[in-house]
Write a structure and sequence with these properties.
233 residues, putative n-type atp pyrophosphatase, domain 2, Rossmann fold, 6 helices, 6-stranded mixed β-sheet
Length: 233
């Protein structure tokens, strides 16, 4: 019997990247692509602030097709639902039955995703759900994932964390009330290497700016034969 086809809700960050690996290893789904929202005004991945070119580099490295849903800025709940609904109808018509998410424990977010997908006859999968986030963060790093923090909420975390490598040193420096996976929106990341990438993505971390209440580190893609530059710490 054929496996259900599924898209990965791809934020460019570590949790989505790990969800892809776990979903693949389960053998229950046929992963057919990545699904990402991009804020059209800035041409960057929504909330993470990652440039579209880096998103496309990830899709190439993971060897998966990419579906981009463009949303306006500002984006109302109605705008988001309309554009995502159009994308999900198209995916369903193409035979996709599920969307895989990297969510960990926020029940209201899970219920929202399940309800929205149900309106188009699709379902959601949460392969990381309920995992201890401290253990998961350590596992990500030990498994070879390499990421850089692209966005932090200055209300709970110093802006200086933006641009840092997501590594053991960062975990040690996080305040005790900050979730190490950033599940409450404390931080977002960009994965420049995952164990299933065909090669690391070459990056350089640029300046950090404060915009719309968040601190964003601008991550740049180094193309061509330039040697990979590790993110600053």
């Amino acid at each position: 019997m054929p496996k259900p086809k599924a898209l990965i809700a791809w934020s460019t960050g570590k949790d989505a990247a790990m969800a892809l690996q776990v979903a693949r290893e389960s053998g229950d789904l046929e992963i057919v692509g990545l699904l990402t929202t991009v804020t059209k005004t800035f041409d960057r991945v929504s909330m993470h602030g990652v440039r579209r070119g880096l998103l496309e580099a990830q899709a190439r490295a993971a060897k998966l097709p990419l579906t981009v849903v463009e949303i306006p800025s500002p984006c109302t709940n109605e705008d988001y639902a309309e554009r995502m609904g159009q994308a999900m109808h198209a995916a369903r018509d193409a035979g996709v039955e599920q969307v895989v998410f990297g969510d960990l424990f926020l029940e209201d977010i899970r219920r929202y995703r399940e309800a929205q997908l149900a309106t188009v006859g699709m379902s959601a999968a949460f392969p990381l759900w309920g995992r201890d986030t401290r253990a998961l963060a350590r596992e990500l790093i030990a498994s070879g994932y390499r990421a850089v923090v692209t966005c932090v909420d200055p209300k709970v975390l110093e802006p200086s964390f933006a641009g840092r490598s997501y590594d053991a040193a960062l975990l040690q420096d996080l305040p005790v009330d900050v979730d190490p996976c950033g599940e409450n929106g404390e931080l977002h990341s960009f994965v420049w290497y995952a164990p299933y990438f065909d090669a690391p993505i070459e990056i350089l971390v640029g300046e950090t700016v404060l915009r719309e209440g968040f601190a964003f580190a601008d991550v740049l893609h180094i193309s061509g034969a330039t040697r990979a530059t590790r993110p600053r710490r």
